[in-house]
Amino acid sequence: MLTINNLHLTLGGNRILNGLDLSVPAGEVHAIMGPNGSGKSTLSYTVAGRDGYEPDHGDVTLDSESLLEMGPDERAARGMFLSFQSPPAIPGVATMNFLRTALNAQRKARGEEEMSSAEFLKVFREHAKTVGLSPEKLKRPFNDGYSGGEKKRMEMLQMALFQPRFAIMDETDSGLDIDALKMVGEVVNSLRGPDRGFLVITHYQRLLDYVKPDRIHVLAGGRIVHSGGPELAQELEQSGYEQFAEEAA
């Protein structure tokens, strides 16, 4: 499904990604863990197509189709979704109008029928209830006046609405309490299926108690230095990343 091959990227004269290789098959959830500055968020921005994150070398493909020549909107239309570490607010833009416009833009790009206001409202309300966002909160402009945890709930609402083929979650657990972590797990688990993949980027094992990964990869020095099963999260929680420092050198 998602394949990253020999990815190199330099920012501000510093090599951030250094020959990174990764493959996430359809139907699987993979997690990336690693120390600060190892390139985790840079990887997510590069795959999603953020401006300024153009690789020096390598390729990123989704179902064998290269993403690197596509803009972020084209990648989103292909089914790529990024949950930001720090979701932005857009003051003055109505939440439901914004999300319906974004959803229908993706559907149109894929040759699908646009969703009517009534259809959208029904689905929107169902998912809003699942993620714990009240109708009063949703009347505000997009993410305006939201706490950090509420912004993360809004991102899970977007993921449930858009039904992406591949989702990257960049430290979605940052600043979340136990109830919110459970909610993230519920949304991800409800979307798991044979034609969808996830890449979960996190510092800590706690999110992985709710989002059970198939594989865990350690990112250090801009590349994957170790991979293992779900039990690797507990090992990292107990011993840290220092053991992989030599491999990253």
From TrEMBL:
SMART domains linked: AAA
Protein name, UniProt field: Fe-S cluster assembly ATPase SufC
Record key words, sorted: ATP-binding, Nucleotide-binding
MF terms (GO), sorted A to Z: ATP binding; ATP hydrolysis activity
Keyword ATP-binding: yes
One Pfam family this sequence matches: ABC_tran
Family of this protein: Belongs to the ABC transporter superfamily. Ycf16 family.
InterPro entries registered for this protein in UniProt: AAA+_ATPase, ABC_transporter-like_ATP-bd, ABC_transporter-like_CS, FeS-cluster_ATPase_SufC, P-loop_NTPase
ABC transporter domain ranges (all copies): 2-246
